[in-house]
Amino acid sequence: MKRYERLADQIAALIRSGVLAPGARVPSVRHASRSHGVSPSTVFQAYYLLEDRGLIQARPRSGYFVREHARQLLPEPEIGSAQAQPAEVDVSELVFSVLGSLKDPDTVPFGSAFPSPALFPLARLARSMAHGLRDLAPQAVIADMTAGNPELRRQIALRYMACGVRLPPAELVISNGALEALNLCLQCVTQPGDLVAIEAPAFYATLQVLERLKLKAVEIPVHPREGIDLERLASSLTRLPVKACWFMSSLQNPLGASMSEAKKAALYELLQRHQVPLIEDDVYAELYFGAQSPRPVKSFDRDGLVMHCGSFSKCLAPGYRVGWVAGGRYAEQIGRLRLMTTISPSVPAQAALADYLQHGGYDRHLRRLRHALEAQQGAMLAAAARHFPADTRVSQPSGGYFLWFEFPERVDSLQLFQLALAQGISLAPGPIFSATRRFGNCARLNYGHPWDARSEQAMATLGRILAAF
Amino acid sequence: MKRYERLADQIAALIRSGVLAPGARVPSVRHASRSHGVSPSTVFQAYYLLEDRGLIQARPRSGYFVREHARQLLPEPEIGSAQAQPAEVDVSELVFSVLGSLKDPDTVPFGSAFPSPALFPLARLARSMAHGLRDLAPQAVIADMTAGNPELRRQIALRYMACGVRLPPAELVISNGALEALNLCLQCVTQPGDLVAIEAPAFYATLQVLERLKLKAVEIPVHPREGIDLERLASSLTRLPVKACWFMSSLQNPLGASMSEAKKAALYELLQRHQVPLIEDDVYAELYFGAQSPRPVKSFDRDGLVMHCGSFSKCLAPGYRVGWVAGGRYAEQIGRLRLMTTISPSVPAQAALADYLQHGGYDRHLRRLRHALEAQQGAMLAAAARHFPADTRVSQPSGGYFLWFEFPERVDSLQLFQLALAQGISLAPGPIFSATRRFGNCARLNYGHPWDARSEQAMATLGRILAAF
């Protein structure tokens, strides 16, 4: 990371934490240059970058100011208060009807689960594919099915090491995206009828997988910034025969919550005491806006209780379908389950990613992607403040590409979804994120697409629909 | 197909059917030229091709003769006589211990499930990958995850049409290889505890999938040439609450049996009467040695009861992990199950195959591959006749790359497996093909690798081990 990028990140952190409030003047170039011990031109470069990221703006002859939307203008959602009672899951039909509505490419994709493909280095990946296939020994097309591409495994292990997780290579199972890994992990530690603790709101695919595997859900409420309610979890673990937890400890989908390191450590100790395995869904880990990668619960794992699932689908190569799990004590069994269901992720896709991770400039791409997403988040927050009812609440996650809106009680988000769709705008209504159909006045909006006049207009249209409730 | 290739196929059919017996003189070039109405040079080309395929050999100044091994020298295995009783399946550990033994690249791979990668057009596929990725619109990396690559779907539908199956495009679900398709099909029509009719011997992955999904097996015996015993199946369907059948109607793994068209039609009518869905595992369909593609049971399907699963893994692109299912009335539900487990097969792999099927010369490749496999089958049969005990029985399938050996009762194939492995030779012992650990004196040998002195030596070694029992 260059010096000016580091400086920009430091200032961005001050803005996010509220030390530099919206409207506040950013220190002058001369002042910043002196106090940070860098050249004025480094400060300028940092400020240009912050301007690009939508966090500050220049006012003629007055210097730089924190933009109004740079911290949220709408308050954050309330903490949910679901009773943690086991529930049968039956949400698939609703999810599929929502997903089906996203197919029209002319729809404004606020309901999408992916960022814009324009944000990914697809041409560079294609070159890596060519190199990867050229260097692949013919026997590897068969050998790599069982073990996974060895260079890809090495590169993933190196990234774990860089964020403080020492991983025996045998723990790593490459999978068809994280969703397969999550499915396999769950099958590894549960039987039909078992109880699994999940988040509320939860990623809707979690609910679908539970439904498919005939598992029951205990919903643990998630605070929009701080993550799951540990007390509630502790009480559920004591009262109920919970067989596994499926949590996103960082940049939770849909709320964007990230647990603090202390809370992650406490979560691990709690699970360790009860010997309940954690399936840690960490697919947004690389999309943090702060200075460094959030540490996973896996980094506290002493006895292989945590299955940590990651993926390249959200941050580099959507459609390639390459994910993985650091499977702890369950790794061998997970690998065998994979051999029995899909055998292997695509060998060429593995080879392409192995080449890209070595030579493609992954960290440079990630920095650009994070900055683009942060700017887009600012734009959507500002538009929401302009167009949505004043009693709307919204999350302000420190990464990812989703905002979670809590509208006034009078808003029915399934109806909102239908009305918006009629205007060519998709969104993800709250009830698809709950086994018990809660969050009827909430919605998840995707800001993963470059912000333009059409996006702005779509927010205005949503505002008009919301006002009519 | 060129004229000389057609002629060669006609003569090959005469050899296979026994009209031209081993040792018999093949008609002279002059005679053949007259009787087939082709030029002498066409006959020469056809004979060269048959020589390449290991079916005939020239004797100096005497003309061409059918090679001794061109029809089997060892008799075919007996029809099994398993009692069709429901059985719990518990074979995974055994299968994994056998598969684990295949990892050493120096082992003679008679136990492998794949043909040699040298037989596949990997460089041409890499070019198709480059073209496919170049032509892929950025949105497609996301859109193709749900629907599948549209050109790939079209190409697969065209191949169905060419062999007489009219397929509404909506029936086609692209999958992570056929094994995922088979898994999804089974989940679609069964619940844990249900009964599924399978073959005996059966592909071991079938057994593993049943075990994983907690399904019970009814084993239906397979005749080494004619396929499953329909009477036995009919009686099972009457006596037992069978929820689905998983059969390979052509080139069955491991026996190589292909049902006649009449028998396939009768199978369909039987299942239709009982309204029991058929999961038709047809992954070896393209590897027939005869003049034309065997017709699938799916071609008789009037009401969407047959789920027909295919793949490119055995005939074109191992490791790409692209298969499909023509899912009949279950297609939509299968597609949804896939979205909930792996979302999608790799989009680049789909694009590469779509390009290859259009421009790569698939049918030319398949002809070459079939001829290579047929020659290799001849070589392994001849070696077996030379080296194995005279009371050994062996299948002689009209396609694929597996031979099924039934050794004298005194041979314990699990012990044979261990002894052979100690000599650097792998094989697939009979019991991994049975839910009830039958076939203890049988083994499957793979002839999918170019035949050389090492292969010949390995057969001799196996012969010595067999003799010692």
From TrEMBL, chains A, B:
GO terms of molecular function: transaminase activity
InterPro entries listed in its UniProt record: Aminotransferase_I/II_large (IPR004839), HTH_trans_reg/aminotransferase (IPR051446), PyrdxlP-dep_Trfase (IPR015424), PyrdxlP-dep_Trfase_major (IPR015421), PyrdxlP-dep_Trfase_small (IPR015422), Tscrpt_reg_HTH_GntR (IPR000524), WH-like_DNA-bd_sf (IPR036388), WH_DNA-bd_sf (IPR036390)
Domain of life: Bacteria
HTH gntR-type domain residues: 1-69
Pfam families, per database record: Aminotran_1_2, GntR
Family, per entry: In the C-terminal section; belongs to the class-I pyridoxal-phosphate-dependent aminotransferase family.
Protein name stated in the entry: PLP-dependent aminotransferase family protein
Organism per entry: Pseudomonas lalucatii
Organism ancestry: Bacteria, Pseudomonadati, Pseudomonadota, Gammaproteobacteria, Pseudomonadales
